[in-house]
Amino acid sequence: MEHNEIALEAQVSRKVMAARLAVGLVQGLLLYWLYAASRDVAWPATAPYLMAPLLTVLLIVPVLLVSSLGHLAPRQAAAWLLAALAVLLVLALHDVWRGTNSYSFLSNWNDKPIGSPSMLLVVFSCVFFFIAHALVMAGAQDGKRIASYNTYFEVAWKLAIQLLFSAFFVGAVFLVLYMGASLFMLVKLNFLHKLLEESWFNVPISCTAFSCAMHVTDVRPSIVRGIRTLLLVLMSWILPVAVVLVTGFLCTLPFTGLTALWETRHATSVLLFTAAVLLVLVNAAFQNGQAVVALPLRVSARMAAILILPIIMVGIYALGLRVVQYGWTSDRVIAAASLLVASSYAIGYLWAAYQYDTWLRPLAVVNIFTSFLVLAVLLALFTPIADPARIGVNSQMARLAKGKIVAAKFDFRYLRFEGGRYGQAALEELKRSAGPDAALLLREATAAQALSLKQRWQPPVRSTAPVSVAANMIVWPAGAQLPASFVAQKWDAMPDDRKPDCLTIKDGKCDAFILDAGGDGKQQVLLVARSYANLGRLFAAGADGNWTVVATMSYRDTACKAVIEKLRKGEFNLIDRPYKDLNVGGRRVEFEISDTPEEDCSKIK
């Protein structure tokens, strides 16, 4: 081992170290340039078809180059990096072309359009190139297109630990720098503190430190190997606990049924995460297939390999129900792709678990095969082959055309914010629709395209057109009438954050409770919006006759259906506060009463 380590240090020479540091510094300077352009809304940030590919390439290719130096021959490294560059350009250009409004990697506080890849593309590109780089490095090390599983194991885990500890090293560097800045501040010297506030310093330093850490971990393989062994041993002993929990969960399903599972609306993601945990823990115990493993871990690993398939089957069933009920969306397409990969693992691991004459040895073949499947699936998702936006938009439009969903309940904003160019084309098509719902489709499609909408779940823009306040109210107790002055008041002058939508937006609905909350014979109006979780607002008329908000009802209470139902039925009474308020220099200071077990919403009868 010592001889191999010396050989590696000779291979990774000082010139390689200098080259790695130079790559990190250049990467940092270029990333700062792009960051500054984004901040100032300047070129190339204003050219999406240039900015997004540049940013994506500069985030990933330099890391691949740093890792390749000293391990790949110049010709091999050039071929691999050119291939990686081509793939990244295709992915980034398609990401810009499809024009989705998903979260971008760079935020812009000037609220002006800038070019930036989507966060989803950046995350999945990192996953794609981690797998691809490990496959390339292992193949080069063995001199084969398909390397041995032991080589894949060594290279992949070394790369994972390098990346993890390089990120940790960057954090440690800045921790020390901030400590130094605090020390200098003690003697009234703030130059380092100001320096750490400058992005032109932080970005290059981060990239250079990351490259330095990649080099240090590369020339000390024994340290990386020791950390990997310790990490895998610790993780493998979590496996029996995970097996017990998952087995218990599966055994309860015949008694509890699946209804409660579907009501969570995120069952598929939880099941996928569970399958991923089992996969990681099984591989932590299996390692390269040659490790000496204790009998309890061998039994647990075999059981976990069997349990993955039923978990995935339940996840497929859960996703299938959602698709049948609500059609395909971008998220469901990605979930389906994840389930496809997970199914490959599950079937392969089940096959390996029943090979009793070997210690899960077929896992090596399954892991290698599925790695290539993951690459293929990711390429399909982020190119026109299986673009989730295209599939989701086509599915939703088909449901509307077939009458599976009525126009009044159709999610037009999904087309705008999740459908990209496909969604925009669909909205234009809806605006030209004929038939009994033509007016509704035109109005809602136009509203979804409004430039004032920045997020999918943004509340509707407040209208300046006259609104019938009385028509928007469901008044309680039944038969009661809103005060005439309340209905006649002009609400547009009141700040938006002080009033519910039903006062200014057509078709906004509120429950209006007529109360005498003060106990003085004067009427107050409690408004609780029906559209989404909102504060309840208690309005009272002042001496000038204008109605203003005098108190609020918390989200915790308005979200409790039992509370609202009791209010509608008039099943409540007024009680005094247990503690009087304080008058401190003319300012009222209220005591907030601590929660008690009796205040639990589920316990209201």
From TrEMBL:
> What is the superkingdom listed in this entry's lineage?
Bacteria
Q: Which UniProt keywords apply?
A: Membrane, Transmembrane, Transmembrane helix
Entry keyword annotation includes Transmembrane helix? yes
Q: Which residues cross the membrane?
A: 17-35, 47-66, 78-97, 117-138, 159-187, 199-217, 229-255, 267-287, 299-321, 333-352, 364-386
What protein name applies here? DUF4153 domain-containing protein
